[in-house]
Fold this protein.
Amino acid sequence: MPLLTPSRDVQRPAAAGAAAPAIELVNVSRRFVTPEGKAMTALRDFDMVVGQGEFACVVGPTGCGKSTTLNLVTGLARPSAGEVRVMGQPVGGVDPGVGFVFQTDALFPWRSVLDNVAAGPLYRGVPRKEAYEKARDWIARVHLAKFEQHYPHQLSGGMRKRVALAQTFINEPKILLMDEPFSALDVQTRTLMQDELLALWSGTGASVVFVTHDLEEAVALADKVYVLTAGPATVKTVFNVDLPRPRVMSEIRYDQHFVEVCKVIWDALREEVQIGQQRTMDSGH
Amino acid sequence: MPLLTPSRDVQRPAAAGAAAPAIELVNVSRRFVTPEGKAMTALRDFDMVVGQGEFACVVGPTGCGKSTTLNLVTGLARPSAGEVRVMGQPVGGVDPGVGFVFQTDALFPWRSVLDNVAAGPLYRGVPRKEAYEKARDWIARVHLAKFEQHYPHQLSGGMRKRVALAQTFINEPKILLMDEPFSALDVQTRTLMQDELLALWSGTGASVVFVTHDLEEAVALADKVYVLTAGPATVKTVFNVDLPRPRVMSEIRYDQHFVEVCKVIWDALREEVQIGQQRTMDSGH
Amino acid sequence: MTDMTMPSRAVPSSEDIETAARAALARRKRLVVGLRVGILVAVLAGWEISTRLEWIDPFFFASPSGIFSQIAIWITDGTSQGPLWEQVLVTLEETVLGFLIGAVGGVACGILLGRNKLLADVFSIYIKIANSVPRVVLGSIFIIAFGLGMASKVALAVVMVFFVVFANAFQGVREADRAMIANAQILGASPVQITRTVIIPSAMSWILASLHVSFGFALVGAVVGEFLGAKKGIGLLISTAQGAFNANGVFAAMIILAVVALVVEFAITWVENHLVRWKPTPFHEQT
Amino acid sequence: MTDMTMPSRAVPSSEDIETAARAALARRKRLVVGLRVGILVAVLAGWEISTRLEWIDPFFFASPSGIFSQIAIWITDGTSQGPLWEQVLVTLEETVLGFLIGAVGGVACGILLGRNKLLADVFSIYIKIANSVPRVVLGSIFIIAFGLGMASKVALAVVMVFFVVFANAFQGVREADRAMIANAQILGASPVQITRTVIIPSAMSWILASLHVSFGFALVGAVVGEFLGAKKGIGLLISTAQGAFNANGVFAAMIILAVVALVVEFAITWVENHLVRWKPTPFHEQT
Amino acid sequence: GGMEKQIYLPAVLTERLGYFKDEGLDVELINSRAGVEAENELLAGAVQGVVGFYDHTIDLQSKGKYIESIVQFSQAPGEVELVSTKQAANTKSFADLKGKTLGVTGLGSSTDFLTQYLCQRAGLKAGDYTLLPVGAGNTFVAAVKQDQIAAGMTTEPTIGRMLKTGEASILVDMRTPEATEAALGGPYPAASFYVQSSWLAKHRDDATKLANAFVRTLRFIATHSAEEIAEKMPADYYQGDKALYVKGLAEGKAQFTPDGRMPKNGPETVLKVLAAFNKNIQGKPVDLAKTYTTDFVDASR
Ligand SMILES: Nc1ncnc2c1ncn2[C@@H]1O[C@H](COP(=O)(O)OP(=O)(O)OP(=O)(O)O)[C@@H](O)[C@H]1O
Ligand SMILES: Nc1ncnc2c1ncn2[C@@H]1O[C@H](COP(=O)(O)OP(=O)(O)OP(=O)(O)O)[C@@H](O)[C@H]1O
Ligand SMILES: [Mg+2]
Ligand SMILES: [Mg+2]
């Protein structure tokens, strides 16, 4: 099976430099204090390496720690132990090269769609006129041209998500983190957005970490799929997906290779899924 | 093809009474004022009839008007024209028999998971002890027993959605409206929740309107699938799905009938999808 | 930005809907104005009758007719300190100055301390101490420090306004949604840009709420300042009337103050409506 | 409820993390207290030196040493009106009563008007008018209406508190998330239950913010009331000291007021911390 | 004005000496910020008696409110027109204050009427000077220091304080009966104890006892030195500067009547002053006999 190489990713982090991986998590743990006052481990001994220009997808059961991982990479949260590096540098604060599509709504409710999308360039000192031109362009790309003047509360859930995508894409980040960005979209819009994302990614050579629940989506998009365990998240397995690029989303699902890859990952996962399921059921009832 | 009957649903509303349909939308329109001051039509000449004990799914492109439709049924919003009836009665305000899982987060952030779930019974005058017992039971059913004392901001996106589900299910509503309830869940949790939903539904004989982006999910769950058009939403087609019940979610996807049904609806839709796509692209660029 | 709805069988055109919505708005407006006027008339009539029947003593509580004729005299003949509009202008000037300085200072300090936890921890205790100082005592200290001119009244208005605005601006900043701040940060906003484009807009309803109440306070500050020593102003008018056992004069001056307050209030509301156009209408208020 | 984080290579145990977090907290606390004391000492020293060098006139502005010895005298020998604690108690009683009445009234009216648009439209104008009435004038009216006892001071404290609390409670109610209200409605909440379980919790930070500032205001109200006429209380202490050119006495009384205000402030903060435990820590404050 | 003011000293002194108790009276002294307030309280029934300036009885009569002075504390206002040291060189009399700003405690107060009357006697017309309400105490001091007013009328302890620092000197002294005669053309009864006439009609016993207590105090003042009197006063009243307090007391002691009787021609002088400037009074008949009574002091031992 040449398309797929299950491999436990244990590369040690390379020294900082031109060839440093875009994102590195080394032995990272993250604990929270629960309301009962006990420490709860969300991430444990977590290792992840995303090379420059690489597209990594992360899948795992809900509540396992995917969003927490992305938060650590942005610098919004700090690890309880271990180290997080971006472009070879330990993460200190928020890096201007990082773009992040939040899982939950984070649009500015007092700004129209246009102003929301233009926010990034304006923050980064792009002249007004240029920023708005760019914003209009991106709004059109997410098919909201008619809604430029709407405020977020006047949009549907999927439309708000598209605004968030435009808001992030417009900055052309070198590192793009996305937390279930397409889950609120219908199939055709999602396909369009996926194509848009791949085009953006191949154009700018950005490194992407993409969290999703949809294994097919993960396989369709990624170079590497990280599968996380339930409970305190560790990396269960990393799969390398070497489907040829460029990939066209509306077609790839009918590709024989693709279907095989999905099936293999599913088979490899089934066992873990059942363990996880059993565990939640035990703790549940 | 005996399993599937494409049919334009044009039944006239029956007189109010014992046999009245659970939900009826007759010729409903809903307009909004856009920020430019123009009137925008979200729903136009919308007809829908959901019989008592029926399970209806609604699919359609993002921003077409699905959430708006549900809002009209709850009584939170009122139609610009036409009539909305619940159990044969015109909708005046919020009906206590209706349950609604919102598309966006609407948990009470100052209440723990337990208190959030117990809210419904407590509002309805159930004694404290009983309400909390029931709440614990439902929290276990959505596999959050360990998180009873957590506040919503300490949960992941998927966990919050599960709390919202428990919060609604605990009331055992006669009419259950759900707006993309499972889109934030991973496949195995989703399957569990779908089974839970079907069990609840068959147990109580509730009428369900379920909005989703996932056609397969819609077909797997529903008696009837409403496909909406883009732009101002009207009902494009109503498909009756007569797959035998009880259905088991983890198996139905491999059922030959199921695959055929999905394919037929897809084929029937492809044309419309392309029209819609073309239209948004025209208006977009 | 409101939603337009109308329960009806026939499919109405956009114009129909707009006309109906406008009519409903006008009806409501008439109702509100009617009720307001009704209450006013009832109160005034009750007051006048009670004084006529000597249930309450007009020597202390004045009477609407007496107040009215006092205002008429002031308007036609002027007050003992000069024409009425001059008094109003003097007080208004002090008030507006004090209000602006206090509001700007309060907002600035609120944002500064709200954004910086260390500063907040260190200084909030001193602000609380300052807030417990009786304004009347401060009044005489200000007169000593700033003299009997406008400065001392303005200073008094400032201290009346500052604390209310500060408390709200501070809390408003602390309440800003953390997801939104994080988003701005990641989109590339500097701390100053975050303050300007995220913190201030989200604290805006807090600040505006405090401005509503604090304009009244500024007015009170200015008047108390005039009370303690002044050449002109409504406060002096009140204190003179009080000294002469002229209850009608006291109440008349207070009514003039109320009119001033209402005029400014409308201005603030107007500004507010322009600033919060983005807000959704609550479901239960959609008509 | 805060997040615990610590950048380190070795994997620390839970206890290590907790110890480190506690140590960091203690360090911060020391820093804050140190800075507070530092500022206090600097201000007092500067003040004392300025008066010694006659840059400012201690006749008007007192001096820390003089204030201190005045307080000492009051504590040991009592004041001309009786023992010091009695004055404090009298003022405190008036203040707390006024504060409670004003706060409860403000919250109640705020919620009522915030939940009912028609009431709000009709009555808000009258509340605004009432808020523009100078409190000193009100003071004399209250004395006439309620006599010279405690009631008039309490009433004055009430009107100082009411408007601030009202304005915030009102706006807090209007800001409650409409999705959350809708959810409660659908879960079966009656209007009263919605008010109790959704509106009040979401308006809570608004109300608390106003309570912080308005306790100081209640104190001011009570003191002004005592100023206008009283047998006992800190306000009388101030007015006597003022009349006797005893600047040290004036400032000493104000410091006693500040201490009272701070004690109550800590109580409010304690309550607040218990009420808002559910709140997430802002990202930028997570250590 | 405040209880701590020297012009109202007999009230507090009576209590300190325990004379109320001796008469079997349980008296509470309540401090009021302004005379007007105190009278309002009296009329509203919040208090039974008020120590204040006599002129208010006349003023109130014109408003249909009847109050009567039953014990007259002073025969002179106790007020002094101070002139700023910077102006003192070329200010020898009120006539020299033409074109200047004059401080009074408040418009419509006794200081206002006295100042205007003195100006009139000196031949100044209404537009020749400006009145500025500056209050008493340190706002008055500050007003002089900041040259807001060239001269102003005030009482102890402000007088003593300003004389001591040399910031002002005396232009007209109305602390002794003689000087007051000279300045106003007659005695000017000021601080007095008055009650509502309707109350008096029903409570003649209480009034007698009160009058007895006050008269005793006035005798005490007349027969003791300033130091001895000061000794009896609460420490807070002279906390700032005791020597100054005693000095002021020594100089102003003469304003108090020895027996609580209304000085002859006193009410007429007050009416004359008021009638000239108080719009309330102008054109209204005033029955001076209803504003005071000496029945009670006459009856006291
Ligand atoms: N502030 C917090 N305090 C306590 N626990 C927290 C906090 N934030 C997150 N957690 C816990 O950390 C775990 C991981 O959460 P996270 O949001 O990373 O999950 P996720 O993988 O993104 O899930 P989903 O797919 O549902 O979004 C959860 O169990 C959650 O309860
Ligand atoms: N308050 C409002 N003012 C103006 N337009 C609105 C308002 N609310 C909704 N709309 C518009 O109504 C249309 C339908 O919105 P709705 O939320 O019903 O879509 P939806 O089908 O639920 O989409 P999604 O799948 O993305 O959730 C959208 O075009 C939206 O912009
Ligand atoms: Mg997540
Ligand atoms: Mg929707």
About this structure: The two ends of chain D are 12 Å apart (CA to CA). The longest helix of chain D spans residues 14-52.
